[in-house]
Design brief:
- The protein has two domains: 114 residues, D-amino Acid Aminotransferase, Chain A, domain 1, CATH 3.30.470; 157 residues, Alpha-Beta Barrel (D-amino Acid Aminotransferase, Chain A, domain 2).
- Helix 2 packs across helix 3.
- Helix content is 26%, strand content 29%.
- The protein is of the alpha+beta class.
- Strands 8, 9, 10, 11, 12, 13, 14, 15 and 16 form a nine-stranded mixed β-sheet that branches. Strands 1, 2, 3, 4, 5, 6 and 7 form a seven-stranded antiparallel β-sheet that branches.
- The protein is built from seven helices and 16 strands.
- The radius of gyration is 20 Å and the shape is globular.
């Protein structure tokens, strides 16, 4: 992403109840969250100075922390207010916010029940996750070698740092091979998701999307399903075999960062962004943009 390195930006970050200079928002190198992945986070978007689905994101942050066995030291209302406040403090309109919480460095080892829970909220300008050119022509995706793990082996409903390691590996390989991103299969060999976004397919006017039983059920995913049903479109949440992609006509990704982004190909399977993808792209942007206040 263009711009200064993320440890060299200007502004303030909310850190354990206080605003600190962006460059001073640091943690110790022996923090448990760094060594053992005991960190949870959210990705939140603001449009026109308004945060989209703030309460839903904060609620998921609490569920993620609970899944990792620790309690956040602030209430939901307090964290909601912090995010509203930092947006105004930094003078941001169209922005990305990153609340996160992690176990500190009081002890070093797998067990860390006594370690403190630290929290930050940062906010910055962030344009589309994919470039305008990529979005217009549709993304070119690979099929990842790594798979989403069996839900009996990970807290798959948590938005936790450790669960993204194989996503980074998969995206790096895809980019090195000339693709934009990668689609991951689940542990049973069914289509799951992209590295940081959920996936939808279209066939004969019906939306098909993988059932989120081994990966995160994204808030944007839920929003798009609601928008599609509002349009009278049928949505099937089901297991999807990779070879079924040969019969789908359209494909798109959804996510807080990705929004609704068309896909042109996944490995040998080709798609053409058409009416339903375009309609849902517009519907989503209409949903997230603050409604104009009528003149008195």
């Amino acid at each position: 992403m263009a711009g200064p390195a993320f440890d060299q930006r200007e502004g303030s970050i909310w850190y354990n109840g206080e605003y600190v200079d962006w460059k001073d928002a640091k943690l110790h190198v022996l923090s448990h969250g760094l060594h053992y992945g005991s960190l949870v986070f959210e990705g939140v978007r603001a449009y026109g100075g308004k945060i989209f689905k703030l309460e839903e994101h904060t609620e998921r942050l609490f569920r993620s922390a609970d899944a990792l066995g620790f309690k956040l030291p602030y209430t939901r209302d307090e964290l909601n207010q912090v995010q509203l406040d930092i947006l105004k403090k930094e003078g941001l309109q169209d922005a990305y916010l990153r609340p996160c919480a992690w176990r500190g460095s009081e002890t070093m080892g797998v067990a860390a029940q006594s370690n403190s829970i630290n929290m930050v909220v940062a906010a910055w300008d962030w344009p589309s996750y994919f470039s305008p050119e990529e979005r217009l022509k549709g993304l070119k995706l690979a099929i990842a070698e790594w798979r989403r793990p069996d839900p009996r082996t990970i807290p798959c409903k948590a938005k936790a740092a450790g669960l993204y390691m194989i996503c980074t590996l998969s995206k790096h390989k895809a980019e090195n091979d000339g693709y934009t991103d990668a689609v991951m299969l689940d542990h049973e060999g069914y289509v799951a998701e992209a590295t940081a976004a959920n996936i939808f397919f279209v066939k004969d006017g019906v939306l098909h999307t993988p059932r989120p039983d081994s990966f995160l059920d994204g808030i944007t995913r839920q929003t798009v399903i609601q928008l599609a049903k509002r349009r009278g479109l049928e949505v099937l949440e089901r297991k999807i075999l990779p070879e079924e992609m040969a019969d789908f006509e359209e494909c798109f990704l959804t996510g807080t960062a990705a929004e609704v982004t068309p896909v042109a190909s996944i490995d040998k399977y080709n798609f053409k962004p058409a009416e339903i993808t375009t309609r849902l792209m517009h519907d989503y942007m209409d949903e997230v943009m603050p409604k104009a206040v009528a003149a008195e």
